[in-house]
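Lab notebook, bench 4. Still working through the backlog of constructs that have no structural model yet. Next entry is a single chain of 193 residues. Request: give me the structure tokens for it.
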Amino acid sequence: MKKNFFYALGMVAMLCGCSSGSVEEEENRMVATGFVGGLGNVTTSVSYYDFKEEDPGCKISGFSGLEDFGRWSEVDSCNITFDNIVTNSDLTLRINVFLTGPANEPAKYNAYANGKYVGSGETYHGVIYINVPSEAISDSETLTLGLKMKNAQRPIDVDPEKKDIRLLGLAISDITIFGYSLEGLDEEEESED
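Model written out:
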């Protein structure tokens, strides 16, 4: 319910600036398209992936099974593949991190979009934002986010009484993807206005 409210709010805000447009909703994704005077055709999209569900709505590798909070990355490199991405979009991924590794240190990572390096960072629990330029998406409708953990740790190495031997990095609760694509006006169209 909460995600639908924010989807609708974002789509209404985008369409308020449009002279014409439409909104389509499909499971965990909403796409708004419209013509914004002086700019051109704009497509915005919002998708939500819940890692607390048996099927988070995306393909994952390198993650634990379902836990109460979501899922741990349990190897030093994990991948998340999202389908139905709007082509040629600039994207922002909002990743809700429930916990980081067992030593109470910030998790350090490199991020890759479709194999291209897009940034690095470190975080305690909270929110990570990863920006993906349209060049990494291009004409593809698929985004594979790769996370290379720089300091993943095994709980048993931090506290021998813990028998967990997984290599933990990030405990992810959910991911929201915000997309924006602009098909600008040609110079001829601008001069006609």
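Notes after review: Residues 2-16 form the longest helix (15 residues). The helical segments are 2-16, 134-137, 155-158, 187-192. Flag for follow-up if needed.
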